[in-house]
Amino acid sequence: MKxxxxxxSHHCAKxxxxxxxxxxxxxxxxxxxxxTRSPEFLAQNPLGKVPFIVDGDVALAExxxxxxxxxxxxxEPAMLPSGAAKRAHSRWLSRFHDLxxxxxxxxxxxxLNDGRRDDPAMVAEVDELYRLTDVLEAAIEPAPFxxxxxxxxxxxxxxxxxxxxxxxxxxYGRPLPPERAPKLLAxxxxxxxxxxxxxxxxxxxxxxxxx
Length: 211
Ligand SMILES: N[C@@H](CCC(=O)N[C@@H](CS)C(=O)NCC(=O)O)C(=O)O
Known about the structure:
The chain is mainly alpha-helical. The chain has 8 helices and 3 strands.
């Protein structure tokens, strides 16, 4: 299987962690033409976004679609919990990540890169990240992972993003107080001990210049 990715992308991280957790052999080829917007890459993936996988005849974009495909095509080890309610909650966490929490991280990340760190409007954006962190903290009961001892798709969704939560709140001068998210931080410690997560975090930090 081929995974086209960017090492600092939380969307890509969840796919790569899922591949590593499932033991699926994969390559990480360079982006054709060197970028997501090159004609060569757009010819394969007209959205021009990563992650993008090619698995034989199957070519897929959109991280959540990809990990659900991996869960069906490579069912062992299972990464969705058993039972309709838990599976729905796992999918809710993943959607909450993609549509709200991860999106807010991206807003803060791009503003920082654009030199808007001290723009007064960013205070409300950091407030919003904290509000979403509180929502997440209230929605989890790690034991040590979101659904007990089995690391799953919801865990894969947040693994890189909690690193970004710590990095970005610090970069904006409002570091995350440990007492604000004790369950999330305990979960992050446990997740970081997974070789899959440790590898993806190390590659992200290397891509960001060792930060
Ligand atoms: N909804 C998409 C989002 C993918 C996305 O935004 N990817 C970013 C990296 S995090 C990207 O490819 N950016 C490069 C570009 O837009 O040219 C998913 O879940 O896969």
